[in-house]
Amino acid sequence: MMMKVFTKEEWIEALRSIGALYKVFVPVKEGDFHNFRSLEKETIPNFDFQNSRLSPKAIVYPQSERMFECLSDNEDPEAFILKEASKEYTPQAIVGIRPCDAHAFEIVKRNFDNQEYRDPWWVQRFESTLLVGMGCNEPCSTCFCTSVGGGPFHEEYLDVILYDMGNKILVKALKDRGEEFVDKMSGGSSPEGAELKGSEILVASAWDKIMSAVPTGKLNEKVVNDLFDAPFWEEVAFACISCGICTFLCPTCWCFDIQDETSGKYADRIRNWDSCMSPLFTLEGSGHNPRDKNFQRVRQRFMHKLKYYVDKYQNGVQCSGCGRCVRYCPVNIDIREVARLMNDY
Length: 345
Known about the structure:
Layout: E1 3-7, H1 8-17, E2 23-30, E3 33-38, E4 64-71, E5 83-84, E6 92-97, H2 99-112, H3 120-127, E7 129-134, E8 160-164, E9 168-173, H4 176-183, H5 193-208, H6 224-228, H7 233-237, H8 245-249, E10 256-263, E11 266-273, H9 294-313, H10 324-328, H11 335-344
Parallel strand pairs: 2-6, 6-7, 7-8
Antiparallel strand pairs: 1-9, 2-3, 4-5, 4-11, 8-9, 10-11
């Protein structure tokens, strides 16, 4: 298992040193928030953050993606023939991703890469992406990763894990391709005993700082219709304004819509993120909407994450415990409380 120690200045230079081999994404501070951006010459990485406002899922699953294209020129012999839009699958690395967001990719993978269905674009992009995680020294108060199969320094879904030790970064490769990534970086030195001990202290301390314990153990045994007809849904949804921020920020939401767009003689078929919290999501061509009421859409969101997914995949809930939907909901709807209601009903 390869390990290296860098000063924070050396670490940034090491990331730049592999720019010809990988497209590197790093956290960048933009106003009051951090988001992941491509490491360019003018980019200033900032690893002093709890978590990014947006999860880095868009690096693998773009918010809008051209699927097919065609010409609408009647004089062209290939007019109106859909052809796959060109795509790139160059090796890339998301550096500084939190363990919860790496876990989220594994949750989404069960939908996009399984025995029945395989999305070739998502799969190829994901397989070309290294997840270089940074453990959480100071988890957010809304985090509950330890309740859903993760942890602030959870290694299972990462290729490399980073330990922020103040003025230094300890880098530990976890998988073969992670070791190859670290080996190609310039600089760094072997860690000393005190640094290894310090990383162990960070892990133990971080676990103690997770304040939320969310019960999910009984969800699998619940009867779907009983939860669907439970009396608490209208109360849960009472304050919801259908803004959809919970699904937009969520690293495990995967719903999309497909639209055809034209410009002059060119036409594109585009896949866009969509949200079950939108009133238009289930609007049918006939004008009928089976989920036209707000509480129905709120119920759908939580039933999908905490019941339908549980029953279908038998592998936990469709949530990695990042807490974004709790932090940013403008009316304070809390998935932790809803999980308790459903689990204990």
